[in-house]
Inverse folding.
């Protein structure tokens, strides 16, 4: 679950009242969030890097709030406050509007065909006459980072670029060029670099190096220019220093480049709905026009409102409550899903705003109705489902065998299903190629190379780890092994003349015997060891 | 029990004195090893308050190996003296003897011999006196006999320097009369025997009191693993609630059943290398119910069944990737699909089995763990029903703070409708890990102490029965 950190006092100021920690915890829980931690910057640094490093840091109280993974509208203070205020009936959810520029043409973003090879999609919008304070600015930057980490899948699906519109001039061109041909002064640097040089420069940057792989090996890198050849950004890596936003910025140009068109639109909508609050005309967003390589155009941001009709009966039945149509409409409105009874029977018309891209089915609406109603207010009932239980025969047999094995004096072990190739082959005197084992791709260590084809190595490793225990050690395990198909093994695992196959009704179900001294040595054991391994499925 | 003779002799010794006796002295005077007396002391102590024995430390002079040799054969210097005939002995000859070198210098300093350096044929040694007293040997005899006190400290230290004597710390007992002192011993029995029962002579016998400070011998037995014991309990609870067990004997699953059929989008972070184990061999699955697969593809990429869908390009290659299952919900999906292929009947299913996550490992997380899952499918199930089932389940478990232990929810229509389940059917489900409640119940903090080959078997030997409701959770 993503976590949002907000300054407690700023939060309370925006909410218009203070809460005790318990009260706010309660409020979060009601709304479907979790107040995970109450801390401060100083405390965080102290915990991670020690007290000396923390000495100059801020004491300001921070609330760390856990938010559902698909609620992009709750990832910043602005969205949280808006959501909570509407939930508490203190505010009506704003209507987000896309508007034309007061004068002249909308800003244009022209996409060239070169981007197809690397990052084909882009959308854009303008926030006009915005006022930033330090807090708003920090929140603005932080939301981009949160979106980048979540819905943007670490910038691989979508990357956001925000620019001071007054420092650049459209129309803007989104194209892709060989890295050697791209040169600009990136954010926070004092000189120009080529894209090739930037790739090297950022290899040691603790933040940016994780994104280099997205475009590094491509023949062309994405880049956005203004009409004077000024570089706005080289997505998804870094913006240009020229167009950087400051506290004084009044007009913001936002561009989102992407490999997933749908997500780009969602991300743009999220950025503009959250921060248009600070525009001279709150909640209005100035449109921008995207021109595609084939000449088609599209106006952004979408800011689409969608309507769905459902019955209060549907909500009542699914949740397990019995509320009137009007009451349900009120509950939904509190969740930013503006609703009204249509007057046709128990029908409700629900308006889903662009901030709620997580609502894709009526069942999501039902969930919000339940949250607004309060889960703790729902009566607990018991399903009247009559069923007779059955055990899975293999598990039933296993349980019976386990009991009797323990009664016979054996101790149960519980070993990992994943192990090294050596464990199931070499150490047992066999070749891995004969084992028909299932292999894991890119295992982090040798212990995750294959899935076990036999239970024997696990037991022998358990004995090796318990050398100091008094003898005799008698162990057993009854569990699944993973086989691609039947292994016809040689019996080099056992001491010659001291092993036997087990036959049941003419079928070979396993073998038992004294382990070969080589096997004993390979598992770092010293005492003679006997083993039995048998498939129990034939006994079902 | 020590030899009765020794016990009685010891008691007699103690009786004779007013204060007490030292065990070492007793040993010496009886001519037995000290340990025999120590054994006697212990046996007497076991009988009750017969004697009082105080442990003492004393220093004691003993002959070293070399010292013992000299006591037997005489000191080096006396042996030198003895082997010199009237006509003398060539020095070179003397030095060949093992005791020659040391003996020569000592004998010289004792003025027992002299050297004629100018003798023809080499330096020659002659006696200077007629006879000698081997004082060193005499002294050693004294110590050997236990009369080291007759020697002065200076003398003993000199012999110590020559490595013929050593001072040993000896622990001995100072034995005095106890409150129930008597010179006779009544033998105490340890066990009731069949003979005693048959003859009835147990009536005349005294039985040694139990030592409640001693550990008993643990009986030999087998043991069940605590995690499996808790699993047995959960299984029991589900069966008592009418839940049927699902077949989960397949660790390998296709991405299709593990993710896509559950309406989890293909670009979701959980499907990435960091969280999921992908197989390199066999890398892909190929057998899928084709019509169903098409419906799943559609609902992901375009929507339908009342849903907007995710609006992305769904790829079959992603769905075909084989993985180690990340949850047993994949099995629940298979079961629900199977159920949808026939006339619908309400069901309650459960499973408890192993799942795999390729995540960061720490004290409470391993790559493999066990998931517990419960599913109810019926017409008209509500959130109230979900909460009711959860409440019943956790009550049977005896778990108080159950909210934080697991997850629960209702399966989405985008999952159920493409399977072909009737519209009015709701499916509720919940799950938790098996390891977490087990660790809480058995007081284990690190999951590696519970699962895997490095587990201490003593923990398995000692783990108590798993009871519900428990006395604490």
């Amino acid at each position: 679950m993503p976590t949002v950190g907000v300054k407690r006092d700023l939060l309370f100021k925006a909410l218009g009242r203070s809460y005790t920690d318990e009260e706010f915890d309660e409020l979060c829980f009601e709304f479907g969030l979790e107040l995970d931690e109450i801390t401060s910057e100083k405390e965080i640094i102290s915990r991670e890097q020690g007290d000396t490093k923390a000495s100059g840091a801020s004491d300001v109280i921070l609330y760390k709030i856990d938010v559902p993974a698909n609620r992009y509208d709750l990832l910043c203070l602005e969205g949280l406050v808006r959501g909570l205020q509407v939930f508490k009936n203190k505010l009506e959810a704003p209507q987000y509007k896309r508007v034309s520029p007061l004068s002249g043409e909308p800003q244009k973003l022209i996409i060239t065909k070169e981007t197809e090879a690397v990052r084909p999609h882009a959308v854009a919008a303008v926030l006009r006459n915005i006022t930033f304070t330090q807090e708003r600015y920090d929140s603005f930057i932080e939301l981009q980072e949160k979106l980048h980490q979540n819905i943007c899948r670490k910038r691989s699906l979508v990357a956001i670029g925000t620019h001071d519109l007054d420092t650049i001039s459209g129309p803007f061109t989104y194209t892709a060029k060989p890295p050697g041909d791209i040169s600009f002064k990136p954010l926070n640097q004092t000189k120009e670099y080529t894209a090739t040089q930037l790739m090297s420069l950022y290899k040691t940057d603790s933040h940016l190096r994780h994104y280099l792989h997205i475009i590094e090996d491509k023949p062309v890198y994405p880049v956005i220019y203004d009409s004077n050849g000024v570089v706005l950004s080289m997505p998804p890596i870094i913006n240009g220093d020229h167009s950087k936003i400051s506290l004084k910025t009044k007009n913001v140009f936002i561009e989102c480049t992407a490999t997933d068109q749908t997500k780009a639109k969602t991300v743009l909508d999220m950025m503009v709905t959250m921060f248009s609050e600070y525009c001279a005309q709150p909640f209005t967003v100035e449109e921008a026009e995207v021109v595609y390589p084939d000449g088609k155009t599209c106006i952004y941001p979408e800011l689409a409102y969608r309507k769905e009709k459902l019955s209060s009966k549907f909500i009542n039945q699914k949740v397990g409550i019995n509320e009137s149509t009007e009451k349900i409409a009120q509950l939904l409105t509190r969740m930013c899903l503006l609703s009204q009874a249509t007057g046709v029977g128990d029908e409700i018309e629900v308006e889903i705003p662009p901030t709620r891209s997580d609502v894709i089915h009526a069942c999501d609406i039902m969930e919000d109705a339940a949250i607004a109603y309060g889960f703790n207010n729902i009566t607990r009932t018991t399903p009247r489902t009559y069923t007779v239980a059955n055990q899975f025969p293999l598990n039933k047999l296993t349980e019976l065998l386990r009991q009797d094995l323990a009664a016979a004096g054996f101790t149960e072990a519980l070993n990992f299903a994943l192990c090294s190739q050596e464990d199931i082959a070499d150490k047992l005197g066999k070749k891995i190629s004969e084992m028909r084992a299932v292999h894991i791709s890119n295992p982090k260590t040798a212990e995750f190379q294959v899935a076990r084809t036999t239970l024997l190595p696990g037991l022998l490793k358990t004995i090796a780890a318990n050398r100091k225990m008094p003898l005799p050690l008698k162990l057993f395990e009854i569990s699944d092994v993973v086989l691609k198909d039947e292994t016809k093994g040689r019996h080099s695992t056992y001491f010659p003349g001291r092993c036997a196959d087990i036959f049941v009704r003419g079928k070979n179900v396993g073998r038992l015997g004294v382990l070969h001294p080589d096997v004993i040595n390979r598992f770092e054991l010293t005492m003679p060891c006997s083993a039995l391994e048998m498939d129990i499925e034939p006994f079902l | 029990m020590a030899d009765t003779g020794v016990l009685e002799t010891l008691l007699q010794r103690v009786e004779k004195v007013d204060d007490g006796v030292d065990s070492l002295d007793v040993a010496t005077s009886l001519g037995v090893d000290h340990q025999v007396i120590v054994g006697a002391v212990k046996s007497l102590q076991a009988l009750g308050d017969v004697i009082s024995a105080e442990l003492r430390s004393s220093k004691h002079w003993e002959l070293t190996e070399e010292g013992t040799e000299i006591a037997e054969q005489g000191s080096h210097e006396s042996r030198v003296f003895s082997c010199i005939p009237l006509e003398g002995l060539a020095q070179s000859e003397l030095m060949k003897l093992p005791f020659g070198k040391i003996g020569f210098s000592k004998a010289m300093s004792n003025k027992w011999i002299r050297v004629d350096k100018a003798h023809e044929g080499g330096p020659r040694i002659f006696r200077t006196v007629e006879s000698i007293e081997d004082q060193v040997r005499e002294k050693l005899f004294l110590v050997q006999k236990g009369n080291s006190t007759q020697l002065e400290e200076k003398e003993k230290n000199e012999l110590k320097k020559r490595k013929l004597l050593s001072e040993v710390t000896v622990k001995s007992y100072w034995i005095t009369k106890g409150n129930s002192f008597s010179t006779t011993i009544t033998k105490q029995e340890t066990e009731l025997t069949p003979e005693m029962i048959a003859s009835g002579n147990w009536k005349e016998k005294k039985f040694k009191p139990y030592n409640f400070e001693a550990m008993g011998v643990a009986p030999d037995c087998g043991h069940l693993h605590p995690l499996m014991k808790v699993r047995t309990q959960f299984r029991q609870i589900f069966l008592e609630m009418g839940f049927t067990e699902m077949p989960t004997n397949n660790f390998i699953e296709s991405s299709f059943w593990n993710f896509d059929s559950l309406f989890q989008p293909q670009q979701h972070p959980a499907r990435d290398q960091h969280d999921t184990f992908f197989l390199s061999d066999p890398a892909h699955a190929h057998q899928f119910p084709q019509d169903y697969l098409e419906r799943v593809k559609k609902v992901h990429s375009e929507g339908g069944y009342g849903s907007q869908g995710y609006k992305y390009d769904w790829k079959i290659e992603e769905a075909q990737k084989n993985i180690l299952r990340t949850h047993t919900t994949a099995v629940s999906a298979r079961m629900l699909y199977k159920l949808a292929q026939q006339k619908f009947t309400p069901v309650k299913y459960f499973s408890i089995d192993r799942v795999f996550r390729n995540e960061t490992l720490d004290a409470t997380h391993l790559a493999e763990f066990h998931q517990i899952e419960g599913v109810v499918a019926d017409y008209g199930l509500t959130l109230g029903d979900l909460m009711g089932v959860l409440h019943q389940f956790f009550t049977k478990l005896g778990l108080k703070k159950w909210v934080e232990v697991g997850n629960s929810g209702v399966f989405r229509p985008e999952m159920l409708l493409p399977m072909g389940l009737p519209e009015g059917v709701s499916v509720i489900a919940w799950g938790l890990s098996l390891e977490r409640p087990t660790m809480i119940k058995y007081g284990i903090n690190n999951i590696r102490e519970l699962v895997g080959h490095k587990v201490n078997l003593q923990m398995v030997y000692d783990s108590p029965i798993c009871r519900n409701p428990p006395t604490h959770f």
Notes: The mean pLDDT of chain A is 94. The first helix of chain A runs from residue 8 to 15. Chain A touches chain B through 70 residues (CB under 8 Å).
